[in-house]
Amino acid sequence: MTSPTNLRDTLASEIAPIHWRAIEGHHRRGALFIVDVAVELVDVALAMAEDRTDAVKGWLDAAHIARPTGDDVDAWTAEEGARFLFVIVQPYVLAQRLNLDVGDAE
Length: 106
Description:
Elements: H1 4-14, E1 16-19, H2 20-28, E2 32-35, H3 41-49, H4 53-61, E3 65-66, H5 70-78, E4 83-89, E5 92-98
Parallel strand pairs: 2-5
Antiparallel strand pairs: 1-4, 2-3, 4-5
């Protein structure tokens, strides 16, 4: 069995940047959750992987984790180069919006 520290390290190592269009299909199949920047993506991934429903419910209730809205999807689709960090915790995909500072090149 993987220890929590090792699972956390494994999940952290699997977090990667991605463009919206590459994860849009996960949204269409209902598997995508957006994680607010107020919460560490790896913390959410670990809680989901460990089936810690109280923690996940707390983030859902506080709107720190949510499915993308239609407005979100429209904006990201229209935006050239909308980028996220993402990690897969089967059967879900967790993504966190990356905001480029003005002047940053992609």
